Amino acid sequence: MSQSNTDEEYIRIITNPLLSCINYRPRFGTGAGLTLSEFQRLYQADPFYSWFGLDSPLMYTAHKAAGGMTSVYRQIGIGCQRLIQRILIDTLGLTTEQSIWSYQIQGTGNKMRTLSLDCRIPIAAIASENRSLVASWLQAACQTTGVSIEVSQILKGAVFEVRQGYKSKDSKRQNADIANAAAAYSEAYLPVLILLSTQIDLDVAYRYKNARWLILYGTITGSTTDSTYEFFRNVLNYDLAAFFQRHSTRLKQEVEIVLQNLLQSNP
Questions:
Q1: Domain extent for 56
Q2: How confident is the model over 18-46, as a mean pLDDT?
Q3: Do 121 and 74 fall within a single domain?
Q4: Are strands 157-163 and 101-106 parallel, antiparallel or unpaired?
């Protein structure tokens, strides 16, 4: 497949989730998103909110923008997760099944729950010409993470959690990922947090590092064990930063369309 065709497919992967934000409507405690007129009927029927004029179209727009911004970040993150998995498949010759990782735990009522991270690199499944490069990176990553030599020698690959950024201090999410790291090590995989941006809370970063996560930051310089874009460029032989730079104008246009829609009162 030519670069232009590959780029077009990758662009679709990362922007398709974003398009769902165009139709975002705030719910206001209801089951479905409300239109402006439905919102006004709801708030006008509430004496207190009506007294304060909270049924204003401006209030609806503010709610729509606030919730929509969260949705924009979330959908960009989902697009990034799908893109990274696809690049692993394409560059390393993996199947879809080989590129995913999950495990089961016992939940309430003796029901089994399936948990997962976003993607996986099993070294044994990599095409032979790329295997030694990834294996060498894995050993270097273990040194960076503080994994013992004895453990590093039995690891069979890496599993990845992909984020566009990580500004939230949601302890539930952090606790889940610490449990994910323990499960990954129990199955002989190194847990890796891939950030596409440089946005991460320092306290969160320290907690992940203490749980022996390798963190790849969204920097365009650095090493393959601390920079997402260096990892892609020098380990996977795919220049992810150049891809985003080539298509920055189009990505900005897609985001602009969504933002303009979110800042309008009428859906």
A1: 1-83+247-267
A2: 90
A3: no
A4: unpaired
